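This week, study the protein below.
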Amino acid sequence: MAVLVQEYRNNIVENYHNGRICIVDYNGKVIHSIGDTEQLTYFRSASKPIQLLPLFEYQLDRKYGLTEEELTIMAASHAGESYHIKTIESIMNKCDIQEQDFITKPTYPARLEDRIAMYASGTQPRRIHHNCSGKHLALMLIARHLGNYTKDAHKNYWQVDCPAQLEVRRVISKLTDYPSQQIGIGVDGCGVPVFATPMRNISLAYLRLARPELIEEQALREGARKIASYYNRHPLFVRGTNYLCSIFNTDDNIIAKGGAQGVYCFGMKKEKLGVSVKVEDGSEHTMAQIVEQILIQLGYDNQSTIDKIDSICSKTIINDNDTPVGKLITCFNLK
């Protein structure tokens, strides 16, 4: 294993954060790698822009009159801010989806400020506060379409062998060049299937999101163009205020999405690159620093993006008394 970040307390290394990095070029060739790029790795929420593509393929965005913001949040991990919840409710109203149709349990928003406000006001948790509720709505609409709009066809959207999930697996296979029957399948935190391929293939998928001309099927190609542009036009709907995904996607040259347990992926349009990162211990507090360092080592020419990411990096360890007590240092070199 390779160490990506060392975490110091005073001058002693307290934690080593091992990980893997894979970068592919326009031809799908691995040009930089750290660790085993052939190891099966779950996309986690980094699959969300890919999982949305069948919705475009079947023109469900037009059928339901969905806005760019609504489509973005359907491929997002929203933090539960008020504008996120209003957008989710708007989709539900347009598409006649009820809150009890979600498999997710009622929860509180991911954003701390909103959770505190809910606690203070005594507001009850809701299913749509879950950060994956937009994705669940997209899956319900795909399931309904494939079920010929029969009553309750959308309610099995979470089952691994339902038509919607089989369709998602087909599209993931197309974008990753990885055989559908070999894709690893688990259960995600939100209760729906989660998919695994080698990291090289994950990077390839993000290359294709950034460069849709590499996608053979026209409907998928056009869907990828749309979601990449929506991410850039509405970055706050990808995650929320002061989160890495939203900051990163303000750069029109990038499409980026993270996932739980230390997964991060992005495609670079001008450079024609696809990038995937996995921190082996699943920690996420090192990710902004890792991504920033990748951009620096690649010689990325948009300093503004690097500066924005740097502004949220936790490079100094602060204790409970707001005293600096250590630091985090990246220690990898792209090969």
Remarks:
- The chain has a mean pLDDT of 97.
- The first helix runs from residue 48 to 51.
